[in-house]
Every structure is written in structure tokens, then in C-alpha cells.
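Exercise 7. Given the encoded structure of a 239-residue chain, write a plausible sequence.
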């Protein structure tokens, strides 16, 4: 079953077509990675799916409902949760309070207390619960923000370059974290540059290039495609 269907979507900024007639399906229960060289249109497509931009043309379905005209908050209510590229935790507040803010809409009382503990444990932040979020390492801040996105118990978790600025160890831990959410049934769509990370987590991959779908399938199949290697892999190391 498809959870997200992007149908013939384009996005133009003045004379520039950032996303051009894209069809993309994210199946329920999969980890799907969106890859491609700089400027390929990945972040734009991501923002179209979460409703931060309206498409110039085309439609977007979530769980078979047409959400093309819906605002981001309505998409969140349907079960989407997003983590943008730069961490945006409340740095001047303790870790626990960041989690509490994220949970306040969904639960209260004893249930909230249980959820706080579950999330802190999942993110490996139990020891750091009273630290100011701004005092955490960059990787831990990214995890805290992923935890805040998870507080909504989304059906679809959308992550834009979740490993940006992370050490290889932090990147690996992030991959294991994503795999554990997915094992619990969550669908995950990730924009990512780091191919080792994509290999660690992706069940299916879509390659964007110059705003168009260039290839899709398993990472193994895509890596055997010479053209993908030329347009993407040759450049990714320079990123
Ligand atoms: N708000 C905007 N206004 C005008 N042009 C934009 C806007 N957002 C993106 N673009 C342009 O659209 C194209 C695609 O950009 P986008 O950020 O989606 O690519 P990307 O694949 O995410 O790149 P990167 O890997 O560098 O983040 C680029 O040419 C970019 O300059």
C-alpha cells in the first residue's frame, strides 16, 4: 500500500523549474531515501510533500487522501512529522522540557511521563535530561529533534539530511535509530547525501537530477547504473 503518492508534481520559482513532473510513491512501512547531487530538487520536493510550498502543478496524496492544498499543520494531524536540516531545538531549555513541549499536544499526566522516559531512553539522552539542549553535541541535538518529531507518533517521519555535521559514529547510531522506528512500523522518507548511511537504512531509493526522477529501485541496482554513478557519485564526494 502506498502512504504517499506524488503525481506529476512540478515546482517553478520564476524561470527556474526546481521539480519537474515528478512521480514518487512511498510505500507504507518502508525506509525510502531521496538522493541526488546538489541542486537536484530534493529539498524542494520534500517541502512540497510536507506542505511548506504549494506545487505549481500536480497532486500529492497521503493515505489516498488528496492533500495538495492542505497546510502543513493539517498534514501533521494526518500523521506526518518532519525534521528539517538544521537542528531547531530550544537550546536555552533543558532536554526534558524540549521533549515535554513536543508531547504536550498529544498526551498528559502519567501517559506523558511514560512517553518522556521512552523517548529519552530511545534517544540515549536519559543521562542528559537536565542539560540545556544547547550544551549537547551537534549529533545529540539532531537526535533530540528527531525525538521531538517522534513525540507525535507519526505514521510518516520525514528527515532532511539527518546526519549533516555528524561524526561517522553518530551517523551510524542515527541509522540504527531510524531502523528501530521502522521496525516498529513507521514509514520513513529521508533526504540524504551520505551513501554509506543510505546503504545502512534504505529499502528503496529515488535519484533526482535537475528536478526530474533519474532512477529508482534498490540501492544495489541504482549503484550499477553507470549514468547514476556519473551524475551523482562523482559529485557527492565533493559535497
Ligand atoms: N525558495 C526558492 N526560491 C528560488 N529558487 C529556489 C528556492 N528553493 C530552491 N531553489 C532552487 O531550486 C533548485 C533545487 O534546489 P533544492 O534545494 O531543492 O536542491 P537540493 O537537491 O535539495 O540541493 P542540496 O543537496 O544542495 O540541498 C536549486 O536551483 C535552488 O537554487
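Solution.
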Amino acid at each position: 500500500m502506498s502512504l504517499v503518492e506524488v503525481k506529476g508534481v512540478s515546482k517553478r520559482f520564476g524561470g527556474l523549474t526546481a521539480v519537474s513532473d515528478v512521480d514518487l510513491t512511498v510505500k507504507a512501512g518502508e525506509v525510502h531515501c531521496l538522493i541526488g547531487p546538489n541542486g537536484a530538487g530534493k529539498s524542494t520536493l520534500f517541502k512540497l510533500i510536507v506542505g511548506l510550498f504549494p506545487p505549481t502543478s500536480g497532486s500529492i496524496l497521503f493515505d489516498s487522501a488528496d492533500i495538495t492544498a492542505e497546510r502543513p499543520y493539517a498534514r501533521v494531524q494526518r500523521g506526518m512529522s518532519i525534521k528539517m536540516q538544521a537542528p531547531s531545538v530550544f537550546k536555552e531549555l533543558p532536554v526534558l522540557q524540549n521533549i515535554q513541549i513536543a508531547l504536550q499536544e498529544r498526551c498528559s499526566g502519567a501517559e506523558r511521563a511514560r512517553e518522556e522516559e521512552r523517548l529519552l531512553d530511545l534517544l540515549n539522552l536519559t543521562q542528559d535530561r537536565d542539560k540545556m539542549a544547547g550544551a549537547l553535541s551537534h549529533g545529540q541535538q539532531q537526535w533530540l529533534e528527531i525525538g521531538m518529531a517522534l513525540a507525535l507518533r507519526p505514521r510518516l517521519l520525514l528527515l532532511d539530511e539527518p546526519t549533516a555535521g555528524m561524526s561517522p559514529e553518530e551517523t551510524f547510531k542515527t541509522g540504527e535509530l531510524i531502523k528501530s522506528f521502522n521496525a516498529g512500523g513507521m514509514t520513513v522518507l529521508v533526504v540524504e547525501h551520505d551513501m554509506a548511511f543510505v546503504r545502512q537504512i534504505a529499502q528503496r531509493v529515488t535519484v533526482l537530477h535537475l528536478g526530474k526522477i533519474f532512477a529508482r529501485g534498490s540501492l544495489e541496482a541504482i549503484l550499477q547504473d553507470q549514468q547514476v554513478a556519473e551524475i551523482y557519485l562523482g559529485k557527492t564526494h565533493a559535497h
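Remark. The CA atoms of residues 215 and 221 lie 9 Å apart. Students should compare their own answers with the one above.
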